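Problem 12. The chain below contains 381 residues. Write out its predicted structure in token notation.
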Amino acid sequence: MPLCSFLENKNPFLVFLLAKKHKKTTIPFMSTLEKILSNNKFWTVYFSIFFLTIPLATSNAAVIESKRLKVKHNVACYVPYASNLPIDKENIKIKHLIIPVYSGGSNVYSSCIKLLDMHRNRQDSIIVVSPQFLTKGQLGKNSEKNLLYWNVKPFYGSSISTTKSFDGDLRISAYTILEDIIADFCTKKTFPNLKKITILGHSAGGQLTNRFAASNTVEFDKARPQNIEIKYIVMNPSSYIYFSPKRSVNFSDSNFAIPTDDQIAKAKGYNNYSYGLNQLYSYHRAKRLTAKKMRQLYPQRKVVYLLGQKDCVQDGSMSTHPFAMIQGRNRLERGRLYYAHLIDEFGPAIKKNQKFRIVNGAGHSGRKMILSKTGRLSILN
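Solution.
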């Protein structure tokens, strides 16, 4: 009997708890638990009590990386990061920087390290640096006073950030930190033979990668003058930034128009940033980035949109916000319609720089996306 069905007969509230508060429990654990509980009333009662007494307030706490990156600000603060090599030691072998962006439930850094294990002939020439942008809830019991965190989700570029030791808002965007990392690498002081930078994210990290690709200026100010190519890999995000107020009509990839009055009434502000270009953030204003400028720059970016073939269901982590739902009914459809939107807005010439690829057999799994043949080729080439 399947575990959930078994438990439902024994303890319906436990099933609810598992589904709502522990939905990220791994399949191997669930399989083992099922074997233990089968025909064993004692262990059924034991695990019921165990799950009911887990502190729910800490369920969102993140595993925080041990390395610290000093943020360029007049107030001392740091973000955690992971890397496979030192970032401050000269290395003439490095030609490629990969920046995986952490998301809530997907450790894309570890998947990138596995990717390098699968391509050992490339290991010496690639450095992987993955900054971790935390919300207050993800800090858990961490007591570091100068660890930077955001009071809202940082993936869209919000500057509402602070530390435990600072009373107020530090006004630091995750995008600014990413730009500083890229700018430092582009000086070529530490990595003089750097040729390529790849920024990638899955799920919420994919949302950040899409918006960062639309927003940053470091690519044109620092990377290109040094002949360093930047590529963005956007994987299975819940939503995208659109470059006009038009959306798909009846989820068709060949017909785009301003939404109807009824649709707009249900999704007022649907074209505000980060779903559109209205009401840009303070990050954009500080860089004097306008909607017109963002539209001008985006077609010049090299972007790969990777969508899982099976990421076509409305699971618990997919955004059902009205602004997202107007972009499509599931992630796969949203990705397909977004690429069609780009062609509708910028013409077929955009296909030269921006590619749309389906990863066969993959659902909403960053690991499967990255380690697939399509994912590996997209990242390494």
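Discussion. The chain has 15 helices and 13 strands. Students who got a different answer should revisit the alignment rule from Section 12.3.
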